[in-house]
Amino acid sequence: MHKLRVNSGDTEGSFFDEGTAALLRVSRLTKRFGPSIVLDNVSFEIPANKTIGLIGENGAGKSTLLNILSGMLRQDSGVMWLHGQTYQPTSYHAACQLGVGRAFQEQALILNVPVYENLLLGQEARFLRAGLFLDRRAMAAAAAQMVEAADFDVDVTRMTRSYDFSRRQVMEILRACLVPVLLTKAEHPVILLDEPTSALAKEHELAFFRLVDRVKTKGAVVFVSHRLTEVLEICDLIYVLKDGNLVAAVESKDASEAELHSLMVGRARMSDYYHKTQQHSVQQNPVLLEVRSLTGPPAYTDVSLTVRTGEIVGIGGLLGSGKSALAKGIAGLRPPLGGTIKYRGSEIHKPEIRRLIREGIAYVPAERMTEGLIGQFPLAWNISMASGHDLFSSPLGRWLSKKEEAVASQFVDKLLIKSGTPRIPCDRLSGGNQQKVVLSRWLCRTPKLFVLDNPTRGVDVGAKEEIYRLIRALTQAGVGILLITDELLELIGLSHRIIIMQSGRVAAEVDAPTEAKPSEHDLLALMLPSANPTKHDAGN
Question: What average pLDDT does the structure give for the chain?
Answer without folding.
Answer: 87
